[in-house]
Write a sequence for this structure.
């Protein structure tokens, strides 16, 4: 029994597990039971003669063998899908570019880039999906997106610890700010002192502290846990608490909200990265990347920076 005996179903299940990060999420996406996904992974591991995933309490992590197999699996499945499309008379796969993006990139960067592409390169179809940075990094590794817009915060580590390192380029660097109800006493000034944030109720992300000012020297009071950033801002407008936003979102806040800088403590900045696998892009994907790079010049305070490879120390 060798890896050549593995079925396409096993390969697709493995890619889904690598992207989703858990057997449960992969099963949900595929419409399988978790036990069925587990059996497919076990069968592929028998064919490979190696353990491909390390099962942990918080999900799965690819082993060194799993990373190697994933790179080959992505190539194999791309070729199989390309043949299927050709046989069906559909356009070549390279006419479609798959882009993943974090929420803050959807306010201006992504829509502006897509509008420019529609005008200048109407033959390119861009399929997009929103996600968290960890989920989008896994999607890049699994080959289900070609490009991804990721978030990065100090100390600006590599997006993951896998090899080879992803190619990343800094598109924007913005200051983190605090959104407060317009009726709140803190909204009367043009800035907020760090000390004035003590004891304030916060609206944070579900299961995370995202939305709480990172420079606080106290245990924050989480009044509401919300996944959607627009819902957070509407809760702020309703006087339910404070939340953090990048200043790129300042123009998108609903009425009844002020977005203010914080004075005191360390400067808090957030970056949006354009990331891809360390290999040449197809011509359409390259045009999408160029459109995203050009959009950053439409925003104030952005600097052009060269493409760099972030290496794990």
């Amino acid at each position: 029994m060798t890896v050549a005996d593995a079925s396409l179903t096993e390969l697709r299940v493995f890619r889904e597990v690598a992207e989703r990060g858990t057997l449960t999420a992969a099963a949900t996406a595929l419409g399988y039971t978790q036990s069925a996904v587990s059996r497919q992974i076990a069968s592929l591991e028998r064919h490979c003669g190696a353990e491909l995933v390390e099962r942990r309490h918080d999900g799965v992590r690819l082993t060194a063998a799993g990373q190697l197999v994933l790179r080959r699996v992505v190539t194999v499945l791309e070729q199989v899908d390309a043949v299927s499309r050709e046989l069906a008379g559909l356009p070549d796969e390279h006419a479609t570019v798959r882009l993943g993006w974090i929420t803050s990139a959807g306010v201006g960067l992504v829509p502006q880039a897509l509008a420019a592409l529609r005008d200048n390169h109407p033959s390119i179809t861009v399929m997009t999906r929103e996600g968290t940075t960890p989920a989008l990094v896994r999607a890049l590794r699994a080959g289900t997106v070609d490009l991804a817009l990721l978030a990065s915060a100090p100390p600006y580590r590599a997006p993951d610890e896998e090899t080879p390192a992803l190619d990343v380029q800094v598109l924007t660097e913005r200051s983190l700010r605090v959104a407060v109800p317009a009726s709140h006493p803190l909204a009367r000034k043009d800035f907020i002192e760090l000390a004035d944030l003590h004891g304030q109720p916060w609206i944070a992300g579900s299961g995370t502290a995202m939305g709480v000012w990172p420079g606080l020297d106290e245990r924050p009071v989480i009044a509401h846990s919300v996944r959607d950033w627009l819902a957070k801002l509407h809760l702020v407008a309703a006087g339910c608490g404070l939340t953090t936003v990048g200043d790129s979102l300042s123009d998108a806040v609903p009425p009844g909200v002020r977005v203010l800088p914080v004075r005191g403590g360390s400067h808090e900045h957030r970056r949006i990265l354009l990331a891809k696998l360390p290999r040449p892009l197809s011509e359409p994907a390259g045009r999408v990347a160029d459109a995203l790079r050009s959009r950053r010049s439409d925003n104030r305070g952005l600097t052009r920076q060269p493409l760099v490879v972030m290496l794990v120390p």
The mean pLDDT is 86. The domain at 3-87 is CATH 1.10.10.10 (Arc Repressor Mutant, subunit A). The CA atoms of residues 203 and 257 lie 14 Å apart.
